[in-house]
């Protein structure tokens, strides 16, 4: 066959393009598959959800959301995807690593130490347990109500007699007394509301007084109980001593009775 009919090597060679390996995200995964960037994204996603749950345990749905956030970063960098199980195992490993770094002397050079310390460290636990201070109760508005004087001008000039003028003066004095009583009542109400408006401090003072009374009663009951127990102990000791002496005397009498027949029998033989 002629050379121009022979197929060239380039025409007969089939180009083989290597396919990109497919990563399977199943299983627990290997720890060496986690890069520093992936671990950082995992801590961010897990930490946000951890704080939303008041530092509680994440459920499976939460772990899937965390894995979704991590995979968004993995896809953008062309890295293998992670499952929720892999994310959970990685967080457990990071926690163990944090505990090891925590007990070391000196500052830690581990890049994730400070972030995990804020999330799971002792300072984070203390801040989570710190109760929030209750807001102070607003003071109630106080309204003063004064009775209008029915006789605004009791001394007006006119043809009224002295007796009617005196009568009006007595009525005015009665009205003034009633107004003063109303003002006193309002003042007491204001003081009462003011004491209640003191809010936390007033309640705290009353609680301390009640606690003192209860503590005093408990201490008094304890003292009485101790006195009663001491009295019973002394009576028991006295009764025990009496029984011991009684048994000792009876034993002596029995010994004497046992000795007397011997003496009498020996005397008869002589």
TrEMBL record:
PANTHER family: TRIHELIX TRANSCRIPTION FACTOR ASIL2 (PTHR31307), TRIHELIX TRANSCRIPTION FACTOR ENAP1-RELATED (PTHR31307:SF40). Residues 8-22, 123-141, 154-163 have a biased composition (Low complexity). This is Myb/SANT-like DNA-binding domain-containing protein. GO terms for cellular component: nucleus. It is found in: Nucleus. It comes from the Eukaryota. GO terms for molecular function: transcription cis-regulatory region binding. Pfam families: Myb_DNA-bind_4. Residues 32-119 form the Myb/SANT-like DNA-binding domain. Residues 171-183 have a biased composition (Acidic residues). Keywords: Coiled coil, DNA-binding, Nucleus, Transcription, Transcription regulation. Its main location: nucleus. It comes from Acorus gramineus (Dwarf sweet flag). Residues 1-31, 123-191 are annotated as: Disordered. Coiled coil: none annotated. InterPro entries: ASIL1/2-like, Myb_DNA-bind_4.
